[in-house]
Amino acid sequence: MKRMLAALIVVIAMAVAAPAYAADGFTLSGTATANGNMVQLVSEFSDTSTANDFGAISFSVPSGATLATLTTLSAEFNVTNDNCGGGSPRFQITIGGKNVFVYLGPAPSFNTCANGWISSGNLVGTSDQCRVDTSQLIAGSQCTTWAAAVAALGAQPITAIQLVVDGGWSQPDKEQTVLVRKVTINNQTFITPGKPSAPGTGNPAALCKGERARLGTAAFNELWGKNGNDRNAFGKCVSTMAHAKNAGQTQQQIMTAVATCRAKGLSGARLGACVAAKDGVVATKTEAQENAKKRKKKP
Q: What's the pLDDT tens digit per position in 142-192?
């Protein structure tokens, strides 16, 4: 249902990742980027690199928390590319240096999620078979229930709680993208929609780095670059995201266009040009669109 190697990579990466949004009670690692009032997590599988293999959000743990004292564990999520699968998305609850996995999506396969935003509901106390996996701590318990997990591990202290996406390997295009918001752990809710986002709240540089990693440099430069050699591409992206009224919406428009253009088999500069033509973002016009605009300005 998952790759154990990926789970270990997540734990190690979060231990060394630079803090982000710590004041809001969560930190980001891997490909995770805060887009306005949501977080985007991407897993892009490659046979040669694990650089973009996972995204994770690590939340502050309630004082003295154990499985037995957790009262609420829930999230709203939206799988925009392609689907649930590969044991992802999931919560990871760390106990004694190992993880209890709590899978999101519909039981019992957790492989097919409906389009749009989905509420996980409160996963504490769920009776779904196989919703919980305690096999890292108890051999042979990959498919279990919340009650069984509490009975076996309920008194042991929880040291970390994360929400992880790393199932790109299981998808037809080797990519999995999930938006997350409104994560509730006991009496605290993180990444709450409804609050207006100031320009730049979505960490523009991180958004653009993630976008460049997903598109590839040639496509990214074609999408954003406006000088002769496209060397201003990254700066143009960061500036646009920093001044956007809703960076999350802008990023989502671009990612939707990326999925459409990739489905046509495009890559490199052709991919960038296709995205620019389809994303509806004023700052990413194609060269043909820019030239047409210049011709209209001439007397």
A: 999 999 999 999 999 999 999 999 999 999 988 999 999 999 999 999 998
Among candidate residues 22, 84, 81, 101, the one with its CA nearest the CA of residue 57? 22
Asked if residue 227 and residue 178 are part of one domain, the reply reads no
- Which residue, of 168, 190, 212, is where some domain finishes? 190
Same domain, yes or no: 36 and 88: yes
| Angle (CA) 178 191 136, round 5° | 60
| 161 within some domain | yes
Number of domains in the chain: 2
- Whether the CB-CB separation of 294 and 287 falls below 8 Å is answered with no
Judge contact between 165 and 56, C-beta under 8 A.
yes
- Of 190, 222, 240, the position where a domain reaches its end is 190
Q: Cα(49)–Cα(82) distance, rounded to whole angstroms?
A: 20
Residue 199, Cβ neighbours under 10 Å: how many?
A: 13
Give pLDDT tens digits for 211-239: 887 788 888 888 988 765 667 888 888 88
On whether residue 197 sits in a domain, the answer given is: no
The three-state (H, E, C) secondary structure of 36-84, written as one string:
CCEEEEEEECCCCCCCCCCEEEEECCCCCCECCCCCCEEEEEEEEECCC
What are the respective helix, strand and coil percentages of the chain, to the nearest 5? 35, 25, 45
pLDDT digits (tens, 9 = 90+) for 95-111: 999 999 999 999 888 99
In angstroms, the CA 108 to CA 67 distance is 22
The range of the structural domain enclosing residue 96 comes to 4-190
Clarify whether residues 16 and 109 are in a common domain: yes
CATH number of the domain residue 66 falls in: 2.60.120
Portion of the chain with pLDDT greater than 70, in percent = 81
The model's confidence at residue 45, banded by pLDDT at 50, 70 and 90, is: confident
CB 26 within 8 A of CB 163: no
